[in-house]
Amino acid sequence: MAVDRAGQGHSSAVDAVRQLHRVVTTASTGTVRAWLALGSTIFPDNLPRPLGLQQMPAFPGDVLEPEGSHGDALVQVTGDSAAVVLDAVEKIAREATAWRTRWKIDGFRPKNRIDNHKSLTQNPFHFTEGFGNPISDSDITDRAIVRPSPGQPPWATGGSYQVVRIVRLATELWDRDSITEQEQVIGRRRDGRWLDGAPAEEEPDFVSDPHGRVTPLDSHVRLVTPDRASPPPIVRRSYSYNRGSEDAGLIFSCFQRDLKAGFEAAQRRLKGEAMAKYILTKGGGYFFLPPPGEEWIAAAFGG
User: pLDDT tens across 153-177, in order?
Assistant: First the structure.
């Protein structure tokens, strides 16, 4: 859920962030994991925010609904069951008195499993996803964790930028197409295998298919990663959602150390993809997940 600070003023921002951090931290118990990420609007204008952090722009084809986009902070709660997650969310909402809910959404991961050290799930289009994530801790760190760099506040080192996109999927329209047509749009088989026959864990030979006769040039995977040897520097962790009344789809979520080199570079390459007519991004936002601990609060807000 995304939340906004209820109070105003520099001192209240410091106190509010401390309160929310404490409440979220104490909600992480047993099988429940909760974390806090910060939106650009929570930072006072006179203090440096994480480099490049801003409100998420609308990309071509997006129709961002104000009531379901952005926020001073993001609180994400995960767990083994919907009941324990709901209990934790209610606890946070009840105890974080300096905050009010801006928007929230429930997600789930159908057929969630670990395969070859990768966390895989099935999206609402019936395709397995998660194959593009790195396996080793060092590769995950390299893609997702912020390093010291010019212009980056020192306190942000060790944190990560999180992008959340609420993507409504036209599943009825999608399901009218044959599986073969769907696979041409995605650029993979439903089980993750490549269209040229390569196993999911290997790389396809796009070089020998320059005209897209095997894997179409406007397929999702070919546009987002035209050079399979250089995947987007992001780590994905997406969820499905279903709000009824034909509002169902994907909660796309990814982490990266650089928004421009990570999500934004990949998203801009998707202009003109064949999948565009089946999807509508209508909410979400950019957030910054601080490094572990609470020392960053004083450094970030001067309190």
Answer: 999 999 999 999 999 999 999 999 9
